[in-house]
Amino acid sequence: MPSPIVYRPMEPADAEAVSRLIAESFSEFIGPEYTEEGRAEFLRHVEPAALVERMRSNHLLLVAMAGEELAGVIDLRDNDHVSLLFVDTRHQRHGVARELLARALSIARPAKPGLDRVTVNSSRFGVPAYERLGFRQTGPERTVNGIVFIPMAHRLETEES
Fold it and tell me: What is the pTM of this model?
C-alpha cells in the first residue's frame, strides 16, 4: 500500500529535493522545447537558494510528501499566480496537483479577499493538466528569454457560491 500523501508548507531543508524534482521533470517533459537560454533561465529559477528566497518573500510554496518521498510542489506567487506546479511522474494523475492547488488557494483566498481568478504561464506540456484543473488559455503562446509559455487563467467560484 502506498504511503498517504501529506501536504505541508515547504521548509528550507526541502529545497534540494524540490529543485531536483522540478529540474528532472522539466528536463524530461518541457526543456526540449526551450532554447538553451530558456533552459538556463528556468533552471536558475529553481535552484535551491532561489526557492528558499521566494519562500521568504511573496511566494507560497507547498509540498506533497509520500512518506519521505517528495511527490509534488506548488509555488503560488502573490496569492494569484501559479509560478510552479510539478508532480513526480510516479504520482501524476492521482490528484496530487489538484490537491496542491486547492490547498494553496485555501491559504491564498483569506490572504487576498476578493480573489476571483488565478493565472499560470503553462508550458505546452502542462496545458492539458491545467485544463483538467479548470484553467483556460487567455492569450497566444509567447516566448520570453527563451521560455515558451501559454498564458492561462482559472476563474474561481465566489465564496458564497
Answer: 0.93
